[in-house]
Design a protein that fits this description.
The chain has one domain (7-254): Rossmann fold (3-Layer(aba) Sandwich), CATH 3.40.50. The chain is α/β, with parallel strands linked by helices and 256 residues long. Strands 1, 2, 3, 4, 5, 6, 7 and 8 form an eight-stranded mixed beta sheet that branches. It contains ten helices and eight strands. 34% of the residues are buried. The chain has helices spanning 7-22, 27-31, 40-54, 60-64, 79-85, 96-105, 145-156, 183-202, 206-214, 224-235; strands spanning 67-71, 88-93, 112-116, 131-136, 159-171, 221-222, 238-242, 248-254. A hairpin with a 5-residue loop joins strand 7 (238-242) and strand 8. The chain binds S-adenosylmethionine. S-adenosylmethionine binds next to helix 1 and helix 7.
Length: 256
């Protein structure tokens, strides 16, 4: 339907929709859409789980000595946790309202900074260093393919040699490739994802429902087999894939 829409046009639409979500008192619901998103303990526990999935297999001593960039930082949910593990943290987001909330949340943290981006490229202020790790957690799952490709190409220029981009995209439903582990555990994890989604949806207000369903919200779905060629062609880096959860495909792209 929207095959011919340019990345720039998509970025404008995404900015409008995310700004509207950021303006709601329930903005954090859109940052991490899990049950009890407004309970601080659950919020932190889920953020820690999310970060551990993204840090899987990383050399934590190496990480402590590098700068980290987060593409799509939202309201700063992960910033403090990343900063605890790295030399510095820089986050940027397409929605100014999200950036403002992130700045507020992390106002007492040193070595943490946030910028507003255009949805396609690294903001100029953040281009002052090379990053050991670029993270994009639950962001590209909300973007069309052309926006995903443009962002990956652009952040790649700011990754230091030996550094990585780690990201997640939506997997195609029923594509079992890459899912490892006992079948009953995988099925249980899938059931949990579905029932959590249903319980969150059941509690949405009219405006939240509009912003979750009547506007562009969920992004391109990828088959596991297409990810490696897609990412290698965009970057020339070494691609490793894993299924952090059965609904998504996680990728680590390393710069030679
Ligand atoms: C679900 S939230 C995740 C936020 C954060 N990464 C986390 O996990 O807590 C997605 C965020 O990505 C931002 N976003 C969406 N598309 C973007 C783009 N093309 N460039 C930068 N930010 C984007 C949204 O504004 C939103 O704050």
């Amino acid at each position: 339907m929207n095959d011919n829409k340019s990345a720039a046009d998509w970025a404008k639409e995404l900015a409008t929709n995310w700004e509207a979500r950021a303006a709601l008192p329930s903005r954090d619901l859109f940052v991490a859409s899990h049950p009890d998103w407004n309970d601080p303990e659950t919020w932190l526990r889920r953020a820690k789980t999310e970060i551990s999935l993204f840090f899987a297999g990383l050399d934590m001593e190496w990480l402590a000595g590098v700068d980290v960039l987060e593409l799509g930082c939202g309201s700063g949910r992960l910033a403090g946790l990343v900063r605890d593990a790295a030399r510095s943290y820089t986050g940027y987001d397409i929605a100014a309202g999200m950036v403002k909330a992130a700045q507020q949340r992390c106002r007492d943290r040193e070595g943490v900074r946030f910028f507003v981006g255009d949805g396609l490229d690294v903001p100029a202020e953040a281009q002052d260093r090379q990053y050991g790790l670029v993270l994009s957690v639950a962001v590209l799952i909300h973007c069309p393919r052309t926006v995903i490709a443009t962002n990956i190409q652009n952040v790649w220029r700011h990754v230091q040699p030996g550094g990585q981009i780690r990201l997640s995209v939506l997997g195609v439903h029923n594509d079992p490739e890459g899912i490892v582990g006992p079948q009953d555990e995988v099925e249980k994890a899938l059931e949990t994802i579905v029932s959590e989604k249903q319980s969150v949806i059941a509690n949405l207000s009219d405006e939240e429902r509009r912003l979750a369903f009547d506007t562009y919200y969920m992004g391109e779905r990828f088959r596991y087999a297409e990810m490696e060629p897609f990412l290698s062609e965009l970057t020339g880096g070494e691609v490793a894939l894993y299924r952090g959860d059965p609904g998504c495909i996680y990728a680590a792209i390393t710069k030679p």
